[in-house]
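EI: anyone free to look at a 691-residue chain?
SC: sure, send it
EI:
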Amino acid sequence: MEIKVAEHCGFCYGVKRAVALAQKAATDRVQGATLGPLIHNPQLIAELASEGIACKDSLEQFAPGETVIFRSHGEGPETYAQAEKQGLTILDATCPNVRLAQQKAAQAAADGYFPVIVGEKNHPEVKSILKWAGKNAICVECIKDISYVPRQERYGVIIQTTFELQKFNDILQALQEQRPGEYRVERTICLATAQRQQAAVKLAAESDAVIVIGGRNSANTRHLFELVQKHCRQAYHIETASELSSDMLRGCNKIGITAGASTPDRLIKEAILVMENMDFESMLNESMEVEVYPGKVVNGTVIQLDKDGVYVSFGYRHDGLIPYSEWSQTESAEELQNSIKVGDEVEAKVVPGSTKSDFVRLSKIKAERDAAWKNVAELPEGEKRPATVKVLRIIKNKAKNIVGLGVAVEGVEGFMPASHVELRRVEDFTGYIGKELEAEIIEVDLEKKRIVVSRRDLLRAEADAKRKAYKEAKEARIAAAKEARAAAEEAAYNSVEEGKVYTGKVVKVAEFGLFVEIGEGLVGLVHNTELSWDRSVKAADVAKEGDEVTVLVKSIDRENKRVALSIKATLEDPWKVEASQFHIGDILDVEVVRLLAFGAIVKLSDKVEGLVHISEIANRHIGTPQEVLEVNQQVNVKVLDINEKNERISLSIKELEQEKEAKELKRYEKDEDQSGFQLGDFIGDKLNKYR
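SC: here you go
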């Protein structure tokens, strides 16, 4: 059997970069985690978690000062802003090709092109590109999605970096036919993706069977598998070598191996090794009844014990070896040597690899786990189920950092992440060992023998219930207090009368006035206009909260529970006091303080001003007061009218001038009478000469 690996497969540059950043963070013992899976490979994600770099679902799970590692698929601009707002340190592992696609999308939108992202709608990379492209961007996953694209004059097309090239070309052609216009096409499929797709097609055409290795949640791996299926009748998608079986390779001479861009090299090497072993064993055991492969559960008999473990015969050419560590996790080697007897029957699981003496490696623990796992039910997507768990041990990574707890749940060992034990951060988990806790199963992967439990939502629900009970009790107390206050308020309203003066306490100072309590539960408003006779006075100038003030009740609206109060009404009007010294006909020497379009304002005293209307400024017609008067000029005026109700005093300059002219005319006429000489007499004498 010939095994051939595709020319291009496994980690791409972007994935290598992201993994290197995360591993360095683990080595440096950085306190942080990835936001979502760093790459689409469950095995590597689990390794990082064991090394102290766990995976968190949202920024809310991060404490201030922690490091958040942005995954290779990228994040939207609002995620960067939120992380900075929370005081988190950002370690950006975004693939450079994804970053380029984000930039292209943002630029297309900025240049007036309608952004169309071709890719998988639910893929995190596509989601991040959409966020950079703006709120109007749309994702097209297949040709039928084109119907949702609005008609525009210009389109900017960006492709998911891991999308199948041929599928993209088909979508682009259909898009241009159905939505004619100007197109800016950014072919952002990364070179590594294109190379892997081309190499996979070539390999598939040359092979009897092709094994595609990679996470089932990896888009580029799925696309590789879809391509291989089109060109090879036997194609298999696996995550790890444990999924391989001889049935997959039976009758095949040429076996091809390819892997997605997020598949570590070691998984590829393990698969090759297992297939080579399969090939070797099949040649030796074609005629034997027992077929052996990693993952197979066998029944055997104990034939020997030594320092390395328990040797088992199970009908195969080679005997099996169960190390003591794979027989029991609770008993020591010495204890097991005393309890295990030759001839004992045992069920064990074949594990990858072999011993130096070619004994088949077996595990009793893994077989027991497999048996226990048969009783574990699947968990529908998006659902969870309650469970009582017992804490078995504390799980640490290679850096000795605690990543979670091993717990007994439904007959198997599950994992409870450290961040899911309590709502608060726990520094010491030793007190949890042996405790039974109420939790929820949030993830079950029967294939990977993985079960994850959490207490977080239960604790949140418990906390919410306590808050709700407290809130309801508080609301009940408030309602009772309101009811009592309403009764007191009603009594206060019945005791207060309009026109009477009361002493009250200021309970609030607002921009528009003072709120004053004049009876228990009865609060009225002193509007700014009722604070003082001086209209420039504001509420803050008059009183502060807690001060006592004297007010007059102006009006009571019992239906709407409104009371209008006045401080001004309790005070003597300073205008009337000062204005009382002036009388109609008074002649005053005053100063011009303001010139208006309709007249001049003059100062009579500190509190009183008067108006000289434009018609009362001069004997002649003038267009503006500025033609005659200027500010700060001293003038004589006559009081024409005093309107106490409207606090207005009308003045005249013209009338004084007219009176002055009348006096001068009268004096002139008097002087003429005293002389005894009249102009007519003079003229008459002159005329007599001509008679």
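EI: The longest helix spans residues 456-495.
SC: 👍
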